[in-house]
Amino acid sequence: METVLHWDYRLFFFINRTLSNPLFDWFLPLARDKYFWIPLYAGLLVYLFFRFRRQLLIVLPALALTITLTDQLTASVIKPWFGRLRPCRHPDIGESVRLLVDCGPAFSFVSAHAANAFGAAVFFIVVLHPAPNWLVVLAVLWAVSIALAQVYVGVHFPADVLGGALLGWLAGQCTGRMARWALKRFPK
Questions:
Q1: Catalytic residue among 6, 90, 113, 129
Q2: CB contact at 8 A, 161 and 111
Q3: Is 156 annotated in the active site?
Q4: Quick check: pTM over 0.85?
Q5: Number of domains observed in the structure of the chain
Q6: Tens of pLDDT along 78-104?
């Protein structure tokens, strides 16, 4: 376990300090802000409306379930259970962290931002299977940029976002498959 933590810290400082540059300092704090992505969400809603029409009453609640599931599991179950401090709150390294946003609550494992983003991305990829290539690329880039931003701004370790991504992937797979099952039973 010591070796895993050692590499997690090293990778954290590589992303948080070594990769620092003005472009990332500007973009990555924005990338983790839910309001920054409103144009993407609006475009996706328009796409979903034309793709599903009345079936949107299946897709949107299933997406809401995905986000609720990932968000509540991270905040209410996993973070309190593991109790891992955020890098910016860690007594041994906190003063060495480049913190570009508010540090947030005490615990960091797993990242809710990463879980929510990967949950939504995988949900869309599963529901829209076979999804257009542009949508798959966009969904993955969106989720990865949010996860990377969490480490870069100093509020999560790489293992936190990796755990969040895995949780989101599992949730997106489950809810996406449930939605696909329902979509087959309730035609347009």
A1: 113
A2: yes
A3: yes
A4: yes
A5: 1
A6: 999 999 999 999 988 888 999 999 888
